[in-house]
Design goal:
The chain has 2 domains: 176 residues, Cellobiose dehydrogenase, cytochrome domain (Immunoglobulin-like); 97 residues. A 7-stranded antiparallel sheet has the order 7-6-5-4-10-11-12. The chain is elongated, with a radius of gyration of 25 Å. Strand 5 and strand 6 form a beta hairpin. Helices cover 36% and strands 27% of the residues. The model has no long low-confidence stretch (mean pLDDT 85). By secondary structure, it is α+β, with helices and mostly antiparallel strands. It contains 4 helices and 12 strands. It binds 2-acetamido-2-deoxy-beta-D-glucopyranose (4 copies).
Length: 301
């Protein structure tokens, strides 16, 4: 009875862990394929790295002259804007971004925006702190992908890089070119020297603890605790104490894991509804599980 409720928890925990693995659709661009675009700069020598797997963003860049950096950001064409922002803090507010989109008639627009605040009227077009080389920007749609290219005039671009993607079918329009709120965004750290990109470290540490806590508690300790209850009954009353101790420990770790999930969701502004719903379900099942001996004792009395 108890073992079967544990296996239900285990089943949902596995399902929940799997719900974060997103399957990307077949991509028409990868770091193995050459760029075949008509750009104002040479594209054969660019470093290439996937920077946002959830939306299949690929970044190519190289330092050209001592103070000129070439960038090409490739993303699926979803009829929305794509943006690459540079930030001193890792936050959107205060950052400057290069934003590009392709209109229905096929013409592309690239603009710099300054993100002065969360409200749309604080996100202003044609402002910001990036020195974009004159006439270096372009955006091209090709094989269901868009390629946003630009050159920055700086000795060292900021390493806290943000990427965002707009609502499908919503693109900025004249005269104000107001930028509607993004559909999704990510904050990363780009190491230009080694050519590696990672999600912002404090978040990735939190993400790691979230994963490890949940796996340890719901995936391992709960099972061990249940087995102690099921198979070691001949060692009475030790079996009960060890069973209860392991189960409570698993529950507390699991609770910490789920709370870290909420903090993470809040900080990352992530869309993880299925994952979250399953997590709450596991927590509820876990509560019932941990309380079951108490219920059991009360029912004897
Ligand atoms: C560097 O810039 C020059 C002049 O803008 C251009 O001709 C050349 O192709 C660039 N090199 C690379 C590697 O992009
Ligand atoms: C960046 O640019 C914006 C708008 O152009 C300006 O208000 C802000 O003070 C600038 N920030 C820095 C640090 O230069
Ligand atoms: C970069 O900026 C410096 C100083 O503002 C300027 O002298 C130089 O011509 C610029 N380089 C390019 C390629 O625009
Ligand atoms: C940029 O493009 C405009 C319009 O095509 C042109 O008038 C201007 O001379 C160009 N600037 C540079 C630095 O090439």
């Amino acid at each position: 009875m108890e073992l079967s409720s544990i296996s239900i928890i285990f089943f949902f925990a596995t399902l929940q862990a799997l719900s974060v693995l997103q399957v990307n659709s077949q991509s028409t661009d990868s770091c193995n394929s050459n760029l075949n675009l008509d750009l104002p700069f040479d594209t054969s020598l660019l470093n290439c790295l996937p920077v946002w797997s959830r939306h299949d963003f690929i970044l190519r860049y190289v330092r050209n002259l001592s103070n000129v950096w070439n960038f090409v950001l490739s993303a699926p064409d979803t009829n929305s804007f794509v943006a690459m922002g540079f930030s001193t803090t890792g936050q959107m507010v205060g950052s400057s971004a290069v934003v590009g989109w392709v209109s229905a008639d096929g013409s592309g627009t690239v603009k710099q925006y300054f993100l002065g605040g969360q409200r749309p009227n604080l996100v202003v077009a044609d402002q910001g702190n990036l020195t974009i080389v004159e006439n270096s920007t372009s955006i091209t749609s090709r094989s269901s992908r868009v390629y946003l290219a630009f050159q920055l005039n700086t000795s060292q671009p900021l390493s806290r890089v943000l990427y965002s993607v707009g609502q499908i079918g919503v693109i900025p329009s004249a005269p104000g070119f107001a930028l509607a709120e993004h559909r999704d965004k990510v904050s990363t750290l780009l190491n230009y020297r080694t050519g590696t990109s990672a999600s912002d470290s404090q978040h990735s540490r939190l993400r790691k603890s979230h994963g490890i806590l949940n796996m340890l508690s719901w995936g391992i300790l709960m099972i061990i605790g249940a087995m102690a209850g099921r198979y070691f009954k001949q060692w009475d009353p030790m079996w009960f104490y060890s069973h209860a101790a392991i189960q409570s420990c698993a529950f507390l770790l699991g609770l910490a894991g789920i709370i870290s999930g909420f903090v993470l969701e809040d900080r990352l502004n992530a869309e993880v509804d299925t994952h979250k719903a399953l997590g709450i379900l596991i927590l509820v099942l876990g509560c019932l599980q941990v309380n079951s001996p108490a219920i059991h004792i009360y029912s004897i009395k």
